[in-house]
Amino acid sequence: MHGLTEQQLIVMLLSLGLIIGLARLLGDIAQRFHQPAVLGELLAGVVLGPTVFGSLSPEWQVYLFPAEGENAVVLQGIGTLAIVLFLLVAGMEVDLSTVWKQGRSAIKVGVLGILI
């Protein structure tokens, strides 16, 4: 990789802004309906993905969220980092006393989850 051109950088920043902005907006809307913000954030991913945005405007969806190329590599890297941080926060919010109370069933589910 030789780095991003000006146009690629602008497209990447626009893509990230769109992702963060819509995720925040739909997360806030979900909270107003007494739902977790993550529900709205996940819905933002569906809206910006090929299911909705890709159906309405496939050219723009491919332009903003390419499947290959340097922008795709950057977006995939940021996405991977976001998933790791999300799982870290989710793990920090787990009440271990509840896990210990569940005992064997929690261990079985955890081990199966790791194996799969």
From TrEMBL:
Membrane topology annotation: Multi-pass membrane protein
Keywords: Ion transport, Membrane, Transmembrane, Transmembrane helix, Transport
Pfam families in alphabetical order: Na_H_Exchanger
A GO cellular component entry from the record: membrane
Record has rRNA processing as a keyword: no
Protein's UniProt keywords contain Chloroplast: no
Primary location recorded for the protein, binned into one broad class: membrane
Family annotation (Gene3D superfamilies): 1.20.1530.20
TM region positions: 6-26, 33-53, 73-94
GO molecular function (one): antiporter activity
Cation/H+ exchanger transmembrane domain sequence ranges: 25-116
Origin superkingdom: Bacteria
GO biological process, one term: proton transmembrane transport
Compartment(s) of residence: Membrane
Protein name as catalogued: Cation:proton antiporter
